[in-house]
Design brief:
TIM Barrel; single chain; alpha/beta; 8-stranded parallel barrel
Length: 296
């Protein structure tokens, strides 16, 4: 799994004004990330508004990204939910040949016990032909994957190879890094904790802002992995306002506004999400102008 070290980005799904998928914009996003030295791409994650896509639309997104990527970067696909049986069927039926791994969010709404989480992932691991990356995001799921449960899964399931940790809890992140096997990927799921995760010994990040500032974000993570913390934190500090802004009114409304400033896609999202407000767009535009001056 060394090809999943560094900076991955959770790709948006761009929409036209009629809410259909903007295929040309999706291609532009893929190329912008690749040209910006991103290390791998994550398709159909939370940022991709996967929960509002039909099965046919999900396949369309996969087909467009796979074709446009053309084997240039490793790809990870999001397949997760709270119905273990249906997910098992989806894993068995989905053509995963173009993907390096599957990212699967912890069951939401059901609020399972740690034993339930363990059995859920063990069942998925047995069904998946590709390595599985756990996704812990308590703010969305209502439950936390405890480090001991992650360790149990790492020891018992050979094709569970990592965790995207988005609890925002650095104490938990450090514990994961300390107790898990050295080849198990501990990946930050928050832009704010990306660099601290790397400097503590983590594998990198699956980022949102990274697709808006790919060169700078990927450089920050590479510097962190190389132990060049002073240079890395200079970039972190320059981007931290952007990290705050893109989540101010929910994800991916903020990052779509960032990409709009590049002329890559429009700001449209699907209900129940709403487009970023004029006020937030103004703040994002100002941040991008200021950041461009710093970058120059």
């Amino acid at each position: 799994m060394k090809n999943l070290l560094g900076t991955g980005v959770a790709l948006i799904t761009p929409f036209n004004l009629d809410l259909s998928i903007d295929i040309d914009a999706l291609k532009r996003v893929v190329n912008f990330c690749i040209e910006g030295n991103i290390d791998y791409l994550v398709v159909l994650g939370t940022t991709g508004e996967s929960v509002t896509l039909t099965s046919a639309e999900k396949q369309l997104v996969i087909d467009v990204v796979v074709e446009e990527n053309a084997g240039r970067l490793p790809l990870v696909v999001g397949i997760g939910g709270n119905n273990t049986h249906l997910l098992t069927e989806e894993l068995l039926q989905t053509n995963l040949k173009d993907f390096t791994a599957v990212l699967s969010v912890s069951p939401y709404y059901n609020k399972p016990t740690q034993e339930g989480i363990y059995r859920h992932y063990k069942t998925l691991a047995q069904a998946s032909e590709k390595p599985l990356i756990l996704y812990n995001v308590p703010g969305r799921t209502g439950s936390n994957i405890e480090p001991e449960t992650v360790l149990r899964l790492a020891n018992d399931c050979s094709n569970i190879v990592g965790i995207k940790e988005a609890s925002g809890d650095m104490t938990q992140l450090k514990r994961l890094i300390n107790i898990l096997p050295s080849d198990f990927l501990v990946i930050s799921g928050d832009d704010f904790t990306a660099l601290p995760t790397v400097t503590e010994g983590g594998a990198g990040v699956i980022s949102v802002l990274g697709q808006g500032l790919p060169n700078e974000f990927s450089r920050m993570i590479r510097l962190g992995l190389q132990g060049k913390e002073k240079e890395a934190y200079a970039l972190h500090n320059a981007m931290i306002e952007g990290m705050k802004l893109i989540f101010q009114e929910g994800n991916p409304a903020g990052i779509k506004s960032v990409l709009e400033t590049h002329g890559i896609c429009g700001p449209t999202v699907r209900l129940p999400l709403v487009e970023a407000s004029s006020k937030l767009k103004g703040h994002i535009n100002e941040f991008m102008r200021t950041f461009a001056k710093i970058r120059a």
